[in-house]
Structures are given as C-alpha cells and as structure tokens.
Design brief:
six-stranded parallel beta sheet; Rossmann fold; 367 residues; nicotinate-nucleotide-dimethylbenzimidazole phosphoribosyltransferase activity; binds 5,6-dimethylbenzimidazole; EC 2.4.2.21; Nicotinate-nucleotide--dimethylbenzimidazole phosphoribosyltransferase; binds nicotinate mononucleotide; single chain; alpha/beta
Length: 367
C-alpha cells in the first residue's frame, strides 16, 4: 500500500469515552463550569484524540516549515521576487526569521523542508531536501502539478510528521514559505468551499487595490480553467457547492502548491499518529481543506492556532468548523501564528491534568 493510502487507513475518529471523561472532569475541577471557555473544549478534543484522559502534555513541540515556489508568480500577483522564498529558507536555517524567535520563546524546534523551492542560495546545515520539482507550473495556463507530483508532496508531509513524532514530539505545528502562495491558497479555498474568488482573495504580503483586483481575476481565471467554479452561494451563506471536493488530489494538483500538498500530508500524518497539529494561517487552512476532503476524521487532530487577516482563512476555518485560538491581525506565515498558540494548547491540557476537583480539594460547590 502507498504511504498515502496507509495513512488514510490509519486515521480514525476521536475516542468518545476519553472525551466524555474529560468533559466530566472539567465539570468537577475547582472553577465554575465553563469558565475556561474554548480551552475546555480544546482539552476535551485532545483527550478524544489521545484516547485517554488526561491526554499527554503536547510537548516537545516541532514546527515544520514547508517551502515551495509558484508558477503563477509570472502573473504579477505579488510584489516580492520569487527568489525571496529560497533566501528566507536560508534565513530560517540561520535562525534569523520571526518563526525562529517565536519558537525559541515557546521552546519549539524548527525543521525546514524544501518541497518545491525554485532556487536556493547556499543554505546552512539542517535543510531537509525533499524537493519534488523546482516550483509549480502556472495554474492559469495548465495544472500546477501532475497528480503524481501532488501525491509525492503529500507523502513528504506525512513522512516529516511521522519522523517528528518518532523523534518524541507530541505537538506538531505547520509553517510555510512561498512567494505567491496566497494566490494558490485563495484558489484552493474557493474550490473546496464554493466561495467566490472575490470573497477569498486578499492582499497577501501586501498589494495595492489595483493588484488585488488583478490577483482576484487571476484566481477566478484559474478556477474557470480547471472547471472549479462553484454555484452561487445560497442567500445568507458565504459558500456554495464546492466542485473541488469531488477529487481532492486533482484539485490540489490543478491550483495548489507543493507546500500546500506537504502541509495536507503533515495534517494527515499527525492525525494517523494521534498527535495534535496546530495550524498556522491561510496556507495551512487551505491545505487542511484538502486533508479533510481526503479523510474528514483528520480534523480531530487539527487545532486552529490563529486567524490571519487573509479573507480566505476565515472562510476556510468556518468550513472546517475550527475556532482560532489567537486573532492578532498576523499575516506573516512561517508558522508564527501556530507557535504563538502553542502555550494555550499546552495550558488547556495542563489544567485538565493538574487542577484539583471540588472533592479532592475540599472546596464547596455552588448551591
Ligand atoms: O499565513 C498567512 O495567512 C499569510 C498571509 C499573507 C502572507 N503570508 C506569507 O507571505 C508569502 C505569500 O504572500 P504573497 O503575497 O507572495 O502571496 C508566503 O511566504 C506566506 O507565508 C502568509
Ligand atoms: C520577507 C518575507 C518573509 C516571509 N515569511 C513568510 N512569508 C514571507 C514573505 C516575505 C516577503
């Protein structure tokens, strides 16, 4: 069996009994019921994922930054030159990027994976060279990847997740680097949710109003080129029918990026290992749509670290039914939003594990 099929077969839903035990313990802990809000629900989900209450503390934690380039860059969708992708890879390896600073703050490791970078300057030690091809093709002209390339990149993500868990990590965090990848993200979100290109295309690294109109048009053209235009959304709904969900890998190959494919695989790999995976911004959100279309139960392992300012990210999270933990108007990528959310995920488990119950502490319950 292929690594992808083996991984899909290993993914099963959360353990309802462990989740019920966590819910019951939350009600008996020395605090008013419900007073930890979203963190209570999170601890219940993590108990269900682990199949035991309390679940293991999500540490040590590892960020994997998947890097790739994009043929659609040729269409003028971003102000940044393509070679910045490879230059930032070198910066991650030298420890000089924001994700490195944030990861040091929370005690997470950073693994950098070249899954599709076009050109790399001489880079420091430690790069995982898993390059499938030197950037995708232009999605407005032809499919960005072949089906085989998309599957190979998914399997890179699965293998990285598996190896990080084998090395002892108990929380995985997604990171990405790829100039022009917010265009591919917007196309994936539209294809998998049925939302209009205008509702999911954003400024990315920062484009002016005219470039944003052009970028939106590029997304619309790519969707039309690949038969991925959904029906108009019903009144009151942001999304309509989602033509991309019928064949998720074909859709990913048509308009996605190599780092999107790898991140989808990383989410699947984490779910198969029953280890939580904290999602970063719109690149991770759009990749999680691919993973969820392949194996809906993988979402039991997924935690939305934050909500980025890209409009497509909110649409993706709503479709996935995930509540972001942090909302700080970030739009950097690299894994930065996921890393900032890590202490919250850890705190939710620590509370469930360590807080006394009314009974054990001799605290009187409410009347
Ligand atoms: O994480 C996000 O939501 C996010 C939002 C805007 C930009 N980015 C990052 O910026 C790069 C892509 O932006 P762009 O404008 O070139 O498409 C890529 O390296 C992403 O990591 C990331
Ligand atoms: C400098 C820079 C850093 C980044 N980190 C993630 N995406 C990025 C895009 C740019 C342009």
């Amino acid at each position: 069996m292929s690594l992808l099929n083996e991984t899909l077969a290993a993914i099963s839903p959360a353990d309802a009994e462990a989740a019920a035990q966590a819910r019951d313990r939350q009600a008996r802990m020395t605090k008013p019921a419900g007073s930890l809000g979203v963190l209570e629900d999170l601890s219940v989900r993590l108990a269900g994922l682990a199949g035991v209450c309390p679940p293991p503390l999500p540490e040590p934690a590892a960020v994997a930054v998947f890097a790739g380039d994009h043929g659609v860059h040729a269409q003028g969708v971003t102000p940044w030159p393509q070679e910045v992708t490879g230059q930032m890879v070198a910066n991650f390896l030298a420890g000089g990027a924001v994700v490195n600073a944030f990861a040091t703050q929370v005690g997470a490791s950073v693994t950098v994976v070249d899954v599709g970078v076009g050109t790399l300057p001489p880079a420091g030690d430690g790069l995982l060279d898993r390059n499938i091809r030197r950037g995708t093709r232009d999605m407005t002209v032809e499919p960005a990847m072949t089906r085989d390339e998309a599957v190979a990149a998914i399997e890179v993500g699965i293998a990285v997740a598996r190896d990080l868990v084998a090395a002892g990590n108990r929380a995985l965090l997604t990171g990405d680097m790829g100039i022009a990848n917010t265009t591919a993200s917007a196309a994936l979100v539209a294809a998998f949710t049925g939302a209009d290109a205008g509702a999911v295309t954003g400024a990315g690294t920062g484009v002016d109003a005219e470039t944003l109109r052009h970028k939106t048009d590029i997304v619309r053209r790519a969707l039309a080129r690949h038969g991925l235009v959904g029906d108009a959304p019903a009144a009151g709904s942001a999304t309509g029918t989602a033509p991309g969900a019928a064949d998720p890998i074909e859709t990913l190959a048509a308009v996605g990026g190599l780092e999107h494919a790898a991140i989808a695989g990383f989410v699947l790999g984490a779910a198969a290992e029953r280890v939580p995976v904290i999602l970063d911004g719109v690149i991770a959100g759009s990749s999680a749509l691919v993973a969820a279309a392949l194996a809906p139960a993988c979402l039991d392992a997924a935690v939305a670290g934050h909500r980025s300012t890209e409009p497509g990210h909110g649409v993706a999270l709503a479709h996935l039914g995930l509540t972001p933990l942090v909302d700080l108007s970030l739009r950097l990528g690299e894994g930065t939003g996921a890393v900032l959310a890590l202490p919250l995920v850890q705190a939710s488990v620590r509370a469930l594990r360590d807080v006394a119950t009314f009974d054990s502490a001799g605290v009187t319950e409410k009347q």
